[in-house]
Specification:
Blueprint lengths: L6 H7 L5 E2 L1 H10 L4 H11 L6 E2 H10 L3 H7 L6 E4 H7 L12 E3 L8 E6 L25 H17 L5 E6 H4 L6 H4 L3 H6 L3 E6 L14 H4 L3 H4 L9 H12 L15 H10 L4 H8 L5 E5 H6 L4 E3 L4 H6 L12 H11 L10 E6 L5 E8 L5 E7 L2 E9 L5 E7 L2 E9 L5 E7 L2 E9 L4
Parallel strand pairs: 5-6, 5-7, 7-8
Antiparallel strand pairs: 1-2, 3-4, 3-6, 8-9, 10-11, 11-12, 12-13, 13-14, 14-15, 15-16, 16-17
Helix pairs in contact: 13-18
């Protein structure tokens, strides 16, 4: 697009539109000094099969041809914004920025010593043409606000169980904390700082069907059966932006200053370590191991009145299978933004190499004491017999759950202690990988 184009005029014109047709493109081009040749070249490159243009593609094109001075201005990012959870609840629906900017508290004005900060990572339910209830204005929730209710209920549970010593709670929500009339993807250049400021990420999943998790869950990503979690290009786990948020949450150190060579003298790190004492159960468990938990709370959990599920971090083989660059997008030009964001994570990424280290028998089978690291991030350390886990050992799951006890024929069997990622633990007997009735489920943190 021509250098005379004004991104501010276009953003105002398209305030509630995710796509534009050819007639509107012509109108905007004429109003902003774009030549016919420039317009037709842009249209030929960016039109979709239905003849429409993504709003983001147009704004991205205008931003890339701004004068150098204007480009410098556009690189100045706004302050990181959060919403007081009490104000969020009182509002009664997802607030939109900038219309509800009075609900905003800038991160620098939040007392971290006494505050629990939650990053809401979600997939918009009315974000594309064809979505149920879509009226031309993209919105993250259903018309009756079912996802907002999931957020309220689930975050209340997380605040009470994971950070009981904190007195305040703040949430970050894309719809309510970044400028929806401007360049939302551009503001996410500071996604690393937003995630680093958060104690956990929280995902609400609306579901209309009743289903059961298996008694033994081997892969929560694949076995959580809500359609809006894993079914189709608009499901959470299949969305590019959702995956990159999961990746950031799993990779960026939880304690601010952890990667600083002078972190022992870093005031922020000292504050964060003091905050660690105010965390409980699964949050304390994950924070102590340098992780930021990802909480999943859907209609299924609200129906059963259970706490949010803690997911395995998007690392190792999970990252390979759910690479953000392979995820679906509503605005194709966002893929370049995602590529840039992934590149920023390179200093933090630590991939686990699969393999065994330890004793073997004359046939080369694992035998005696040894450790096996799995591509998923799981680790088993303990006794082996002829290639099988047999005897006493410890199995640490990528999700943060840990089993310490007896194994037989590769399965938990005999007495053991299983600590769930939430911090709840079971102390008792196991048979062929399953808990028996001969044991106690204890709620206190180990």
């Amino acid at each position: 697009m021509g250098s005379g184009a004004s991104v501010e005029k276009v953003e105002d014109e398209l305030k509630y539109s995710s796509t534009i047709d050819y007639d509107l493109l012509c109108k905007l081009s004429n109003e902003n000094g774009v030549t016919e040749d420039e317009r037709e070249l842009f249209y030929s490159k960016h039109k979709k099969p239905d003849g429409l243009i993504d709003r983001g593609d147009l704004i991205f094109a205008i931003n890339t041809v701004r004068a150098p001075a204007n480009n410098a201005i556009s690189d100045v990012l706004p302050p990181i914004r959060f919403i007081d959870f009490n104000k969020f609840k009182d509002h009664g629906t997802f607030p939109r920025y900038p219309e509800q900017k009075d609900l905003i508290t800038n991160l620098e004005d939040i007392s971290r010593e006494k505050s629990f900060l939650v990053f809401i990572s979600h997939c918009w339910l009315r974000g594309w043409a064809g979505a149920e209830g879509y009226d031309g204005r993209p919105h993250p929730d259903t018309a009756d606000g079912v996802k907002f209710q999931l957020c309220v209920k689930g975050i209340e549970k997380a605040f009470k169980s994971l950070a009981p010593a904190m007195t305040e709670c703040f949430v970050w929500l894309d719809f309510g904390c970044i400028d929806q009339n401007g360049d939302p993807a551009g503001e996410l250049k500071q996604l690393d700082q937003i995630v680093a400021s958060s104690d956990c990420i929280f995902t609400p999943i609306h579901d209309t069907e009743v289903w059961e998790l298996p008694r033994v869950v081997k892969d929560m990503y694949a076995e959580y059966k809500a359609k809006l979690w894993l079914d189709g290009p608009h499901a959470y786990i299949n969305r590019g932006w959702c995956r990159v948020e999961m990746m950031y949450a799993a990779t960026i150190p939880l304690l601010q200053g952890d990667n600083d060579e002078n972190s022992s003298n870093n005031k922020n790190l000292l504050i964060e370590k003091q905050r660690l004492r105010n965390f409980s159960a699964g949050l304390h468990f994950h924070a102590s191991n340098g992780r930021r938990p990802h909480l999943l709370f859907g209609t299924n959990e609200m129906r059963r009145n259970t706490d949010p599920i803690i997911l395995p971090p998007l690392q190792n083989s999970y990252f390979t299978h759910y690479n953000p660059l392979d995820g679906s997008l509503s605005v194709e030009s966002d893929r370049q933004h995602i590529s840039t964001l992934i590149a920023k994570l390179e200093p933090y990424i630590k991939k686990q190499q699969e393999g065994y280290k330890g004793q073997t028998n004359s046939q080369g089978q694992y035998h005696g004491k040894g450790e096996y690291r799995f591509a998923s991030g799981d680790v088993y350390r303990g006794e082996w017999s002829n290639g099988l886990k047999q005897g006493q050992g410890m199995y640490r799951f990528a999700s943060g759950a840990v089993y310490v006890g007896h194994f037989m024929l590769n399965k938990m069997d005999g007495h053991g202690v299983y600590t769930f990622a939430s911090g709840v633990y079971y102390d008792g007997e196991f048979k062929e990988g399953k808990k028996t009735r001969h044991g106690d489920v204890l709620l206190q943190q180990r």
